Amino acid sequence: MDAFSSSFMSTLSPPTIIPKPILTPFSSRLNISSVRIEDKPATQVTSTTTTTPQSPSTTSSSAVPKRRAEPSVLTLIFNAFDDIINKFIDPPSKPSVDPTHVLSNNFAPVDELPPTECEVIQGSLPPCLDGAYIRNGPNPQYLPRGPYHLCDGDGMLHSIKISQGRAIFCSRYVNTNKYIAERDAGSSLVPNFFSGFNGLTASAARGALFAVRILAGQYNPANGIGLANTSLAFFGDRLYALCESDLPYAVRLTSNGDIETIGRHDFDGKLFMSMTAHPKTDPDTKETFAFRYGLVPPFLTYFRFDSDGSKQPDVPIFSMTRQSFLHDFAITNKYAIFGDIQIAMIPTEMIFGGGSPFGYDPNKVPRLGVIPRYAKDESEMRWFNVPGVQHPTRNQCLGRGRWQHNSDGGTKCTIG
Ligand SMILES: [Fe+2]
């Protein structure tokens, strides 16, 4: 996972003139100090900044801070059971899953920030600059009551929109099904996937409690369980917040620099369940290539989107014979390439092992799978053993796609 590394540069459509705000004497360089007081981690959060005053002209109606709902009596009862699990059955015993450690200091969660103008403190922004930088990352809506892994946080987008010599900063949650349900309930509802299933007893307890919440109508997993916290991708003229456990969420940047969630996108019903957070878009053809992987056969499914974002039929890969951590892949101008690496997905490990669904298997021979990028089935797919890749840090995932060179009449493909 690279939940803190995602970013995206977007070209904006027609700029809208934003009236110059009135900056008060307290205006200074951009500062953010919006850690929620009620959910503040137990450890001291160091903050040396102050918040830049808001400009009425750059604060949309949606920017009004949302009051979180008060938990119902039923929610409080369920939370009491959750507290028992977190205190007596599976407390966060390791620093790596202790929220007071994981979410301390610079990693402390922050609240949403409406569009806020940044003061230029040196030089000026060239008027020809017209676009936005947006990043995605996990930022839990509620301070976790039990074990928490960095990748368990709700997706939050941070943007800096630069236009007409001005820079507007904004932070917004992706309004996923999970985020909305938990916001409306005034409480977290969904167990943390990466840290909440640690051993048989904890897994059974949290699984049972979540099932009861579903039966009580607090949460509908059919509408998605994803966090949309991993990356951003722009294709088919739409911007998506992505997480490989769910469908993409379409989002957009408004003319005043706010970030809005359009909704969970299934591409006219053609995209099933989930999709990689790292699709690859061909800069020449504008086609986008993607896949999903999972716990049940086919363990790998390849597909692509036309330049207009129309999803093409799935290509199930049954020659992928076991679950594997296929977080990323690569494309060339002829092929798509997948890494069947030594990091295996072992769901039973969550229940009977050390709690992580991902495990290093030194006995597994890593493979590279190569399939023509316009394949309609896997008949032309070839797998190559690459036993030289032995160390787990060397086969995290396939990194970035590399182009294919044919200048000497041959074929060269470089995988990063
Ligand atoms: Fe990643």
Structural summary, described in words:
- The chain has 416 residues and is an alpha+beta fold.
- 12% of the residues lie in helices and 25% in strands.
- It has 5 helices and 21 strands.
- The strands form 6 sheets. A 5-stranded antiparallel sheet has the order 1-3-4-5-2, with no helix packed on it. Strands 6-7-8-9 form a 4-stranded antiparallel sheet, with no helix packed on it. A 4-stranded antiparallel sheet has the order 10-11-12-13, with no helix packed on it.
- Helix 1 (73-89) runs antiparallel to helix 4 (200-215).
- The chain is globular and about 55 Å long.
- The two termini are 16 Å apart.
- Residues 3-65 and 390-397 have low confidence and may be disordered.
- Keywords: Dioxygenase, Iron, Metal-binding, Oxidoreductase.
- Its cofactor is Fe(2+).
- Residues 42-64 have a biased composition (Low complexity).
- Pfam families: RPE65.
What is this structure, in a nutshell?
The chain is an alpha+beta fold and 416 residues long. It contains five helices and 21 strands. The protein is 12% helix and 25% strand.
Features:
single chain; 416 residues; alpha+beta; five-stranded antiparallel β-sheet; four-stranded antiparallel β-sheet; 21 strands; globular; disordered N terminus; binds fe (ii) ion; oxidoreductase
Taking pLDDT < 50 over at least 5 consecutive residues as the criterion, the unreliable ranges are 3-65, 390-397
Note the beta-strand portion: 15-25%
Query: How many beta-strand elements?
Result: 21
Counted by DSSP, the helix tally is: 5
Q: What's the helix-strand series?
A: EHHEEEEHHEEEEEEEEEEEHEEEEE
Using only C-alpha atoms, the radius of gyration works out to: 23 Å
Report the mean per-residue pLDDT as an integer: 81
* Class from secondary-structure proportions: alpha+beta
Distance between the termini: 16 Å
Q: Quaternary state, please?
A: single chain
Say which molecules are bound, naming each kind only once: fe (ii) ion
Percent range of helical residues: 10-25%
Label the overall shape: globular
Largest sheet: number of strands, sense, barrel closure: 5 strands, antiparallel
Strand order of the largest sheet: 1-3-4-5-2
